[in-house]
Design brief:
The chain starts with a helix and ends with a helix. The C terminus is likely disordered. The chain is mainly alpha-helical and 132 residues long. It has a domain of 60 residues. It contains six helices and two strands. Strand 1 and strand 2 form a beta hairpin. This is Myb/SANT-like domain-containing protein. Pfam families: Myb_DNA-bind_3.
Length: 132
């Protein structure tokens, strides 16, 4: 596999060097993902870095997690590509619904499920036909 890689890309990376690079990228990706899952943080596509809504958000987070201090000023090019590589579709919330819409949809779903559990409402075609 190493030889095929060298032939295709013309570089002399070893398997171990590529594994190390992969691990470093994954570690950086996980750090950014951790920050973005925290309230008050977001992703700036232009600067390719994490930002906070207010300086105190960074200050408070870094007090509790000093190892994240470097991410206050460090950029990470290709983060959205890494979301794909590491199995996170890179959800941006672009197509998300408002909280009120979700609550209404959940209520309808809960009501429908409760009706089916009580024997009311629609049944599965398999159950209606007497089983398998």
């Amino acid at each position: 596999m190493e030889e095929k890689f060298k032939a295709k890309f013309g570089t002399s990376f070893t398997t171990e060097l590529l594994k190390n690079h992969y691990r470093a990228l994954k570690k950086n990706y996980n750090c950014i993902k951790t920050l973005l899952n925290e309230s008050g943080f977001g992703w700036d596509n232009e600067r390719e870095m994490v930002y906070a809504d207010h300086d105190h958000v960074w200050d408070d987070y870094i007090k509790a997690h000093p190892e994240f201090n470097m991410w206050r000023t460090k950029s990470m090019s290709g983060y959205e590509d890494l979301c794909i590589v590491f199995g996170d579709g890179g959800a941006t919330g672009k197509y998300s619904r408002a909280l009120e819409e979700k609550d209404v949809a959940n209520e309808k779903s809960s009501t429908t499920n409760a009706e089916n559990l009580n024997g009311e409402g629609s049944q599965s075609p398999i159950l209606a036909g007497g089983g398998l």
